[in-house]
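tool_call predict_complex ligand=5-phosphoarabinonic acid
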Amino acid sequence: MTARPRGPVLDHGNALHEGLGGAGVDPKRLEGDLADRFRAAHAAVEERRRTGEMGFFRLPGDEELAARSRAAADDLGRDVDALVVIGIGGSALGLAAIRDALLPAGWNELDDEARRGRPRLYILANPDPDTLTALLPRIDPERTLFNVVSKSGTTAETLAQLMVIWSGLEAALGADGLPRRLVVTTSSGRGPLAELAASRGLRLLPIPEAVGGRFSVLSPVGAFPASVLGVDIDELLMGAREAAARSAHPTLAENPAGMLATLLHLADTELGHPVQLFMPYADGLRGFAYWAQQLWAESLGKALDTEGRLVETGPTPLPAFGATDQHSILQLMMEGPRDKVVVFLAPEAPRRDIVVPPVLRDYPALSYLGGHTLFELLQGERRATAEALRRAGRMNMTITFERLDARSLGGLFMLFQIAVAYAGALYGVDPLDQPGVELGKVLTGGLLGRSGCPDPEIPPVASRWRM
Ligand code: PA5
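tool_result ok
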């Protein structure tokens, strides 16, 4: 373990009155009513953490679970050219975040040596026949490890793609060959996938009962494929433990996850900023931004509060990417409706850097760039954008961390999971459920003739409008 001073740091200066010409948050409130509100939210979350309902808190310390992921990776993840993970939503987005952050860019195009003998990675989330049709001829069933991931074990998108893979695998390897090439990650001992694994002798990696899909990245859902790919999951979990320790205090000013949750909740509910952009300035955090979007949206967008009252609440989280989106959405952020708050995310130091060579000195439009590094340019753009937004009276915050590695990423995962738990308490909703996605699943089941799902009789839109 290497000594390290700190993990993700939240700078909320650009969310406060002074800097924003009176917009944003009155800092006095951070020691007044907002601190009181947070203390109550903290107590509510602590209670659910203590009872074990919020199972994600336990994952970073669950050595046994991590060891199971590592052991399965050691047994089955060697001597394969490809790892195909079949899963969607919380069963895929965390792994995509790990891939983007911790594997070298363009991983699948690298040769064996550059991948240090680790497999290429394919994530099958959306059941689009074009995607699967393109992939299947490129992978050799003898040299591919499949990992089907579904907490419920009932997700149609995942099961349908598994069935396609299953039939090809059985044809190529025979039923006896399947356990060498297919690993199931699902609820322990419950659900159709657990039954399938038990009856066919497949390795099952359990997702603890109290860990929901979007909170499962530090369970075998993320840890097993990450181990197969050579990611140091001990560092990931350590970063998560450190972040949890830093965001445990009931005092708002001493709890970064609490501050993030409090300010974003206030931005939405009192300051008129329901649109919340997570905007990394690092290509490696693209997947993280999508992961955070799902975590925020599915956890906080709710019809009913915990008392059963109709509230129809929740912010609209969106990923945005610096500096690319400075040439896209920034104009709207600067001058459009004041309904947005931006959370910038950035490493303080690059993993590697490139100096722009001092060529073309006779061209002032180019020459000032010579001698600077690309990291300096990117971070300069981030700081400048935050400042430009501040000068325009637009609320923003910045989360920085030392450099993008497994430990920082573990810290970011945990910071956001704890923050959304606090935000749930502040909104008065249950961040762990997602009742709103059920109706669509039942209607889909009905369209495909699933037993127990009535024919939804959805009229074609054109017939409703007589077009
Ligand atoms: O966070 C969630 O619960 C969802 O996004 C699920 O992960 C997603 O719907 C997939 O469900 P499952 O993991 O049961 O296949």
